[in-house]
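Let's do one together. I've listed all components of the complex below, 654 residues spread over two lines.
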Amino acid sequence: MGSISLNGIKKSFGETEVLKDINLDIKDGEFLILIGPSGCGKSTLMNLIAGLEELTGGEIVIDGNDVSEESPKDRDIAMVFQSYALYPTMNVARNICFGLEMGKMPKNEQEVILKKVSSLLQIDHLLDRKPGQLSGGQRQRVAMGRALARSPKVFLFDEPLSNLDAKLRVEMRTEIKKLHKRIGTTIVYVTHDQIEAMTLADRIAVLKDGELQQVGTPYEIYNDPVSHFVADFMGSPGMNFIECVVKDQNLVVESGGEKYELSIPCTDALNNSNLDVVWLGIRPEMMTEIQPSVAANSFIHQIKFDVEVLEPMGADTVAIGQWNGDEVMARLSPESGNTAGKGFDLQVDTSKAILFDPNTGLRMR
Amino acid sequence: MNSFKLTNINIGRTLIYLILLFFAFIYLAPLYVMFTTSLKDIEEIRSGNLMALPMDPSLYAWKKAWSSACTGSECEGLAPFFWNSVRIVFPAVIISTILGAFNGYALAKWKFKGSEFIFGALLFGCFIPFQVILLPMAKLLGSLGLANTVTGLVLVHVIYGVAFTTLFFRNYYVGIPTELVKAAKLDGAGFFAIFRHVFIPLSTPIFVVTIIWQFTQIWNDFLFGVVYSGSGTQPITVALNNLVNTSVGGKEYNVDMAAAVIAAFPTLVVYVIAGKYFVRGLTAGAVKG
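Okay, and this is what the predicted structure of the assembly comes out as:
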């Protein structure tokens, strides 16, 4: 019903290559998130899928049909824009039905769909209003309603939540997820917000400089990133990277006059390379205050840590400090009672630590 | 201390109002003189004060200016020429505004190869002085068989006006988010459907601006009118000039003044009616959608 294959997609604007050979298969009914920093080409890729931009190379296949040359209206795709792009002079009802009206659907059939969509999104009471009279969240719903009305093969969402305030964003996020569960249509969703990506996606595709870095489930992207970039981009706060010297099968870190030898699980990666210096990647939640309850094993280490700043987040507190000359973030319990400007002992669990090649930024396996 | 401040403000306010009144007086005085003079008889004009109100107001001068004053050899007043102007202005304004809206829409939202160049070239058209195109245009009208006709004058005003109307609409439409076009394309609307359903309803303010501008320009035009019209197709500005320059016996200032007010009347009306919409800014806050 709505599978998409992107085969060797290329796009240039004049001399600048925005997308370089993108290959990606999106399954029917999948919720795929395109994520990347601004300027990575994610919105361009979305416009290409919609047919709003012309391909420089490659082909787009929807449900087995090559649609690369087809105009947007023949692709059976609906899109929700960041600015919602509601028609300002039409009321909500006509905004939702405009696509149907253009498709020459009879009025009474339009009414039926309008009823269905507006009750699904709980906007029945707004149908006579103009977009200018709606709040941000209501406009968001109307924009989704307009997309839903045509019951297309594929929905495209272009950063749909970034104009909403923080609380509403979380609400609408949940609602989009529920909506997807309910209608089961393929969704391609562009965002630069990694929390949105983690919470919504069936699969995440990470883009950087017009190239796909990694495609995988949120779990894979978070726990098994292929590169320093992906590891750094996903997660809040981001992963810590600590420069270490390789000694036998262990990593040596010197900090504050102390010398630590860290043992790690991924020794194969060390054996497979002959690097003297590597980056140790370790998530903030694996660096905590000393937890006596955790049974001692070879991956549990204790280090001295100088805290510069504490950022209470409510559920936990992020401590930011220096270790081995690198900025390191640790996730502490809010009850740990530490204060900024002091050193204290930190427990580092390397059981999930991963290694990166400092020269290429790639994961060492 | 409070009262000190208050008087200070009052003095400032008074000063501002005095200055404003002074300038308003300077601007309105000619209109006042024209109007009062047109209601006086010729004896009173010769003997009386320029600023004085008419002692015995009469519409004699207005009637004469409208229907029997001499404009050269004919003595039919301004009426036929007024209707000439109407027949020139309405089609010229409507056609040039519609063309400008289309051009502006295409140039702002449907960029194509060379669209920037075309816009630049059109913009250049705004800076070409009337005099430069007089001869080539005369030749063109001649070869089209439109010399000395109302149609010919309409054509000249449309061509000359399109540069301005395009500029107005293009700059207005550039401010309308392109995402609206994208959304409408995905909804299955084409070039004309998007223009009709999305852009035209948003365009009231710029239509008003353009119509005021074009109406005033074309109604007040003298040069094209005097060059390209024949004896039966002269616009009112040319007739006014002829009327003032034709004197049978003594100079009838009251008739001249009435004729001038008649000639200026339609542009005044347009400002009074449409100016309100112009200021109100009909879509304030709506474009953000």
